[in-house]
């Protein structure tokens, strides 16, 4: 690793781990530059800079000793990472370590580097004209502003003979003429835009969806509030758990989001048939157990997964999710409404999706040891990967359509049934059926399995379990009863829409 020595010039550059986005918006970039001013300016002269979504470039002159300048860079990256992690509910390193640097030994290379850094946004089609880009130093060379670019500005302009020629030379050069494409100071593929912004896009979506859902459920309950719990996963990542308990409508419920990453555990490598792989997974998972047995339990989750090779390249990615209804007493109007909402969401993307994913839901949420479904189904889809017909963006649009439909599917049912009268016997039946729900989650559910085998947070994983449950020996519903009616439907799936 090249040491940073006083009175020497360097090309400093780095990217996010696995090419992750490190600057999501203008506010992130502005904050990073403020930290640059705070930590670096006293130790270096900045000659040029450019920030893009997943990496940055600086040309600098070191003005202090090696130990001090290294500490300054460490303070910069640590301060920004801490703020970024807090904003995005993540943990762990954000930038690759150690940060990359190349010693600039002659003025011709320095001149070419200045051009390269300033033209970077246009080279990657971020903007049509690099001169309009706000987060590079190019514009500062035509103003009196010296906040970030140093007293060395006259020296840099002098490399081009004059400011006029500085601008002309920038306009005349192309990436090939600059001969930077094969610069061995950059990792292979470093200058490509983020390999996938999909995880950032979806992670932002589930944050917003969690807020929307919990706000509406709190309004419906009218008594209880969601308790929020932020948690970290030691191996990488974390989440935001929101739980509601002992409410007027919801006896227990949780709406959780998480984003975890790191080395894929051995057990999961065997499951996926891979070796030595890293992963990223994020999603929203919710379960609501209403107090009134006339109101059905509901479950939903929407998730995204990426797997990487040793060089951080994405080798696999997919979406999954769905939503399903578990009633204790069958109201056919409710079943039709829930399924019709699911079908409407599916039909906007493919007329074959509803029948396909409804069948998979009936098949998946099935207690084989009981020969009955967990509930009356809904949608279940998994391993939704890019094909000739569906890009990952298409899948994103579909999954978020289903996610956005959840409240429309469930809330009218809750509002219609939450104030109905019920007896102790009906409450007992609800608790017996909840036992079947527990059995499925602990015996069959893949999400529970994945969470437990990736050292997930136990409280969040088992949040789906109801607070009061009964297991009555050889319980059989009375012939001709409403309870028996439900069992018969669970044994033979119905086409509700």
Provide a brief overview of the structure.
With 497 residues, the chain is α+β, with helices and mostly antiparallel strands.
Task: Outline the structure in words.
The chain has 497 residues and is α+β, with helices and mostly antiparallel strands. The protein has two domains: 9-178, Transposase IS200-like (Alpha-Beta Plaits, 2-Layer Sandwich), CATH 3.30.70.1290; 198-491, Coproporphyrinogen III oxidase, aerobic (oxygen-dependent coproporphyrinogen oxidase, 3-Layer(aba) Sandwich). 41% of the residues lie in helices and 22% in strands. The protein is built from 15 helices and 13 strands. Strands 5-6-7-8-9-10-13 form a seven-stranded antiparallel β-sheet. It has a four-stranded antiparallel β-sheet with strand order 2-3-1-4, with helices on one face. Strands 11-12 form a two-stranded antiparallel ribbon. α1 (26-39) runs antiparallel to α2 (66-88), α7 runs parallel beside α11 and α9 runs antiparallel to α11 (392-417). The protein is elongated. The chain starts with 8 loop residues before the first strand and ends in a 6-residue tail after the last helix. Keywords: Heme biosynthesis, Oxidoreductase, Porphyrin biosynthesis. Pfam families: Coprogen_oxidas. InterPro entries: Coprogen_oxidase_aer (IPR001260), Coprogen_oxidase_aer_sf (IPR036406), Transposase_17 (IPR002686), Transposase_17_sf (IPR036515).
Topology:
Layout: E1 9-15, H1 26-39, E2 44-51, E3 55-62, H2 66-88, E4 100-104, H3 107-123, H4 153-159, H5 163-172, H6 175-178, H7 198-221, E5 227-232, E6 237-245, E7 250-263, H8 266-272, E8 278-290, E9 297-308, E10 314-326, H9 332-347, H10 353-364, E11 366-367, E12 372-373, E13 377-384, H11 392-417, H12 424-443, H13 446-453, H14 458-461, H15 482-491
Antiparallel strand pairs: 1-3, 1-4, 2-3, 5-6, 6-7, 7-8, 8-9, 9-10, 10-13, 11-12
Helix pairs in contact: 1-2, 7-11, 9-11
